[in-house]
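Thread: magnesium ion complex, take 2
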Amino acid sequence: MRTILLTAAALGLVFPAVAGDPSGPAEEVRYVMGTLATVRTWADDAVAEARSLAVAFGAFDRVDSLMSTWRDDSALAALNRAPAGMWVAVGAEVCGVLTGALAVAQASDGAFDPTVLPLVELWGFRSEGQAGRPDSTALRACLAQVDFRQVELDTAGGRARLLRPGMAVDLGGIAKGYALDQAAAAMRAAGATGGYLDLGGNILVFGNQPSPCVGVVDPGNRERVLAAIPVQDQSVATSGQYERYLVLDGEAYGHILDPRTGWPIRPGFSVTVLSSSAMLADAMATAAVVLGPRAGWEFLENTAGVEALTLQEPPDAAVRWRTTSGLEPAPEPGAIPR
Ligand code: AMP
Ligand code: MG
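Output below.
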């Protein structure tokens, strides 16, 4: 019996039949970091299972308390509130994630940019009300506030500062991956022999557990898996599958913005990145969606430590998928042409 998760597009997770452990793993599902988190743990005894679930959710809560832009008391909120040029003590973990974010920003030439928050707000993606097209003067002014090169870090001192007025950092494209890495490390230290963690569609699997596969699911028949890639001791991040769209003049837009134009990205291209670093996978998936099918695939192909499956699902053409050269999916009969 296979379980196929995700219904929004043609990328999914496929679980092979579970062998062994008749009692199954211990599992907990909770709403954290603005999304649904599922953690399954395998351990030698129930005490270690309970402990590893507790430390996993403890890690999610800690990352949220440091990096959420939705709460006033996070270290990131303090950085975003501070006047331009003022050093803020954000701590080693925020500095570490900012370092990772700035590295992906640099490598993607600004397609990924952690200072994108003013744009996200301008388009109304964070407000209760209707999101909508901003006027062009406001958009131009906002673009001047989005520039990852204007973030300065003092990693030894655990401090950061934003150099221009109006700048604000959003780690929404990378923090879930970081939280997964932290949670998995804590679970291992607490005695877990295997784990499966899903944080809002970012997945990490480690140790002894029934390894899931990343699958390309036939959009016309979601029970049919066209290609499958097993995942073991890796994380998987998918970007570009939007559950909520902004609709403008009948056209749909997603919540990832192109910091170079200021416009949201149109749906139809999604990216699944596999890496031993969940933080890197998360950021790279977001970056590749901004870069688009051709440049995005090249970026992934040329980055060490990641493999990826990209998928174009245009409304009026056949689905096209492509993998980076280190991945060998096992296409099933009738696989769609690449
Ligand atoms: P993800 O779901 O990992 O692709 O991240 C999407 C989130 O990242 C959005 O909801 C924004 O908070 C943020 N974001 C949007 N556009 C960008 C961008 N170009 N670079 C970095 N983060 C972004
Ligand atoms: Mg991401």
